Structure formats: C-alpha cells, structure tokens
Amino acid sequence: MKILKSIIVVSLFLVSLNGISQTAKDKEIMKDAETAKTAMLKIDKGLKSFIDNSSGYVVFPNVGEGAFIIGAASGNGVVSENGVAVGMADLKKLDIGLQAGGQALSQIIFFETNKELAKFKEDELTFSAEMSAVILETGASKNANYNDGVVVFAMPKAGVMADLSVGGQKFSYTSFEDME
Questions:
Q1: Has residue 168 been placed in a domain?
Q2: Which tens digits make up the pLDDT trace of 33-71?
Q3: H or E segment to which residue 63 belongs
Q4: DSSP state letter for 39
Q5: Beta bridge partners of 104
Q6: In a designed cystine with 111, which of 9, 53, 59, 116 is the match (CB 3.0 to 4.6 A)?
Q7: Could you tell me if residue 3 is inside a domain?
Q8: Residue 41 to residues 27, 29, 44, 51: CA-CA distances in angstroms?
C-alpha cells in the first residue's frame, strides 16, 4: 500500500512539474492554439480526419507576416503527437521578390508518419518555395494531399498581402521535457 501511495505521489509531482516548466507565454500560446484549431475545424470539419490520422501536428495560432520586396514572418506554436501536446515550436520565414503588405494568419502543419514528425522535432524540416499551404475554406481538406509526408493549412485572420517571391520557412522545436 505504501508503494502504491509513493507511486501516486511521484506521478502527481511529475505531472505538476511539467505544468510548472511551461511559462505563462507558453500557456497563452497553447490556449490560442486550441482556439485556432477549433476555429479551423468549424470552417472545415474534414480537418478532423487529419488530426485523427496523422502522426502529429503543429498549430501556429498567430503568424505575422510583412513584406516590401523583402519579407519576413514569425510565429510560435504547439506540437502535438497522438493528440497530446509534447512541446513548443518556432517558425521563421524569409523571402525576397515581388511582394508588399502584411497579414496575420493561423497555420496547422500535419505530419503523415513518425518519420516526418521526427524530422520536424530534430529541426531538420524546412519549406522551400515549392511547398504551399492550402487556404482553409469549407471542403478544402477533401482535395488536400500530403506532399513529402507534410500538408499545411492556413487560415487568414487579417491583412492583405500580394506575394510572388522565393524563400523558405525554418522551424525549431523544444519538447516540454527539455524545458524543465
């Protein structure tokens, strides 16, 4: 009986430690990511099959992008594996070309297999000009397919952007365990 109580106490301690290791900013991003995911599911219920069948996904609830010839974007997000949040992510984008404006959007990236998710977690995933996001609207997920094991959906929130450019996105990942 004492062993069982000890196991329960240690388990509760570890769970609470995980919650403590997340900063107030991380908790706010996690809340925003859940809100963004809910909003995306309202627009296109077909996203649920990607959520249920992918190895993992990352939700960037607030990506800000601005450009005049040279453009940049950044955002923070939450990485989920098998439906459970496992860490935080950072997105950076830099491009050059015929572009002007600014916009805010939410973005969700799905990983078809553990291989692509592991690549993301190891900070080896980058997107070049060939990778494009599916703009989220009713039914958009029906025709969306994985490209090299990854599919991206974007939901515009505000702003206007004209963009014909070349560049890339770079991601970084930090697991909750590494935050302790």
A1: yes
A2: 999 999 999 998 989 999 999 999 999 999 988 888 888
A3: strand 56-81
A4: H
A5: 64, 158
A6: 116
A7: no
A8: 21, 18, 5, 10
Q: Which residue has the tokens 């196991």?
A: 7
Other beta carbons within 10 angstroms of residue 61's beta carbon come to 27
Query: Contact 112/149 with Cβ under 8 angstroms?
Result: yes
DSSP state of 24: H
Domain count, the chain: 1
In tens, the pLDDT along 95-110 reads: 888 788 888 889 999 9
Give the burial string for 6-40 (b: 16+ CB within 10 Å, else e): eeeeeeeeeeeeeeeebeeebeebbebbeebbeeb
The answer to whether residue 134 is domain-embedded is yes
Closest listed residue to residue 134, CA positions, set 34, 52, 43:
43
Residue 67 forms part of a structural domain? yes
CA-based Rg of the chain, rounded to a whole angstrom? 18
Query: Rounded to 5, what percent of the chain is helix, strand, coil?
Result: 35, 45, 20
Give me the residues paired with residue 111 across strands: 56, 150
Q: How far apart are CA 19 and CA 22, in angstroms?
A: 6
CA–CA separation, 178 and 180 (whole Å):
6
Average pLDDT of the chain? Answer: 80
Residue carrying the six token digits 């039914």? 139
Domain that holds residue 93: 24-179
